[in-house]
Amino acid sequence: MTHIESLIENLKRHQLMVAVRTETPESAYNAATACIEGGIGFIEITFSVPGADEVIKRLSRDGKVTVGAGTVLSVDDVKNALKAGASYIVSPNFDEEVVKFTKKEGALSIPGACTPTEIYRAYKAGGDIIKLFPFVEIGGIDFLKAIRGPLPFVRYMLCGGVTLDNILKYLSADAAGLLIGTAIIRRDLVAAGDWNSIAALSRSFVRKVEDFARTNANFTLKQ
Fold first, then answer.
1. pTM score
2. For residue range 79-132, what is the model confidence (pLDDT) as tens digits?
3. CA–CA separation, 221 vs 12, rounded Å?
């Protein structure tokens, strides 16, 4: 199994990736650390965070988490992210140069797309997992069901709309992973520096995944 295949399988098993988008590098690091404490195995530090590469560098020393970069819009961003220790590159859009450079450097590529044409182009360019974004606005689970008809070979990441109340519906969709942002990295908690509550939220989401896996024996075996 290649490194990329191992990462994809690990994400599939854990399901949850948390995107950290805050106003300062310190709050990003603290929020990410709280998520790790809560059991989150995949953390994405968005490049909208000032000094995102330094945050990635600090977090990548922690063996309990796989760290990636988000909101990556250029090849220069990819270079900075990979130099800092990012294992995967996530974008809100599909940029062929970004995807191809990411793959050339041996990292996991997760470009964003929201139409059949974008999804297929991103896949053909080398995208390992295609992030459906903005997931709710393009039709949510119904869109995923529709697009899987003609494009069943694509691995999908669902980005947007996941809550503790509806996560079982998302897990039942059998995606490559779920990308969660403000449902865990709540702005009010970040503003208050309430990292314990962010850790508790993370733990609640992780338990939902674990409970789902226990009652669905084939969950980790599906692709």
1. 0.95
2. 999 999 999 999 999 999 999 999 999 999 999 999 999 999 999 999 999 999
3. 9
